[in-house]
Structure formats: C-alpha cells, structure tokens
Automatic annotation (TrEMBL):
Its EC number is 2.1.3.-. Coiled coil: none annotated. It comes from Alteromonas lipolytica. The gene is cmoA. PANTHER family: CARBOXY-S-ADENOSYL-L-METHIONINE SYNTHASE, TRANS-ACONITATE 2-METHYLTRANSFERASE-RELATED. The lineage of its organism: Bacteria, Pseudomonadati, Pseudomonadota, Gammaproteobacteria, Alteromonadales. This is Carboxy-S-adenosyl-L-methionine synthase. One of its GO terms (molecular function) is S-adenosyl-L-methionine binding. InterPro entries: CmoA (IPR005271), Methyltransf_25 (IPR041698), SAM-dependent_MTases_sf (IPR029063).
Length: 243
C-alpha cells in the first residue's frame, strides 16, 4: 500500500476542527505516524517479538485501535504459523476498510480478522496478548479503568497487555522539556511550525494524556501483577503489563 505524504495541516485553516481518523488521515497515516512518534517502527517490531515469546498456541491476540494493522501484521509474522487468531478492531471506517484491503493482499502465517467497533464494546476472550498502540489516549478518561479491567479479565494467566501512549510529565518544567524535544523531532522530520501548531490544536480536545504513574496505578488496580516500561523516548512510552 502506497503511503502519501502528510500535508494535512500545511496550509492555514480558517478553523481547526477536532482531529478525526477519517479518509484524509487514513491516506497519509503511515507517513504521519513515522514522522510524529519517535521509535514507532521499533515499537511495532518489538510487539511482534513479544508475541513470539508470550502468545500461547490456540489463543487470541487483540489489536485494539488497530488503524492500518501494523501491530497485527507484526504479531502474525513473528508467531509460528497457525499459532493464534488475531482480532484487529478500530472505530474508524476509513482505517478498517484499508486494513481489510491490506489483510486480503497478503497470505499471512496467522489469520487477522478486522472488525469495526469501539474498544469499550469488545468482549476479550481466550487472549494471551492484547495490544493498544497509541489508542487509550483517545478513549474518554472516565471510561479507561473499565476498559483496562475488561482487558485484564479477558487475558489468560501469564497473558500480556502491551500499551503504548504519549504521556505527560508530572512537573511543568519536565513536561516543557520533553515537549520541546518532541517538537524538534517533528521539525527535523520536515513539519513546519504551522503544521505543528494546527495539528496540536486539532488534537487538544480529543487526545487526553496521562502520566506514567496514572497508567501504572490503573493497571495495578485492574489486577496486573507487573508493569514494565520497556520503551521511552521523550513523551512516548510503551509498557508491558503482565497478568
């Protein structure tokens, strides 16, 4: 699938609307995500490596907020053929349609079923791995504890929940420092000040981020026995929560 260049915010907008995962975003998503999140490809590759070591034969793997299916494809390719069933879920019709086309275009060692739906409505069963890759931050905060509990309850003992998120540092000084580093990362990847400013305005009401401590506490309250931060760069992290 050809990736188009992300220039959605390159020209001045009379009014910046709230960010949506619509057709326009889906068309440029691979370019957008690689230029916006440091280490994104490392995270995707590591999700596959975690699957290879932790997914139990005959179980399900859930990719919640799958977008174009990068994490699902990584799991499918890293696991032994026929080891698991992967269920990829996204609320965006544009993402689901393109993800289905990708799945149909490849012969995969482990099948991927792509579903349109909301994370909060999905029943997790017989799972040895659940992935939420930069998804929880778009779920309304009051609904997050119940969703994490639902994931915990659907995992088998020893199962893992991989959650990647943008996070907020607990102090203003520290938060300013990591935000400045991330902004420079985006500049170095070709985004203009206008693009950075307009995209920030589009996201401010829909992407509500937590601190690491909030994430850790929520996971522990759900029952997870251990929470491991395996990746951190600037204001982005990825955790493995172990049941």
């Amino acid at each position: 699938m050809v990736s188009n260049k992300d220039n959605l915010f390159a020209t001045p907008l009379n009014q910046v609307s709230d960010f949506q995962f619509d057709d326009a975003v889906a068309e440029v998503f691979p370019d957008m995500i690689s230029r916006s999140i440091p280490g994104y490809q490392t995270i995707i590759e590591t999700i596959g490596q975690l699957a290879a070591s932790k997914v139990v034969s005959g179980t399900n793997v859930y990719d919640i907020g799958c977008s174009l299916g990068a994490a699902s494809f990584s799991v499918s390719r890293h696991c032994s053929a026929g080891q698991c069933q992967i269920i990829a879920i996204d609320s965006s019709p544009a993402m689901v349609e393109r993800c289905r086309r990708k799945v149909e275009a490849f012969q995969l060692p482990n099948p991927i079923t792509v579903k349109q739906g909301f994370a909060q409505s999905e029943t997790i069963t017989n799972a040895s791995m659940v992935v939420m890759n930069f998804t929880l931050q778009f779920i309304p905060p009051p609904e997050r504890p119940a969703l994490v509990q639902q994931i915990y309850d659907g995992l088998q003992p020893g199962g893992i929940f991989v959650i990647s998120e943008k996070i907020r540092h607990p102090t203003e000084q520290g938060n300013d420092l990591i935000n400045d580093l991330h902004l420079q990362f985006k500049r170095d990847n070709g985004y203009s000040e206008l693009e950075i400013s307009q995209k920030r305005a589009a996201l401010e009401n829909v992407m509500l981020i937590d601190t690491f401590d909030v994430h850790k506490t929520r996971l522990e309250q759900a029952g997870f026995a251990d929470v491991v931060m395996w990746y951190r760069c600037y204001n982005f992290m990825s955790l493995v929560a172990i049941k």
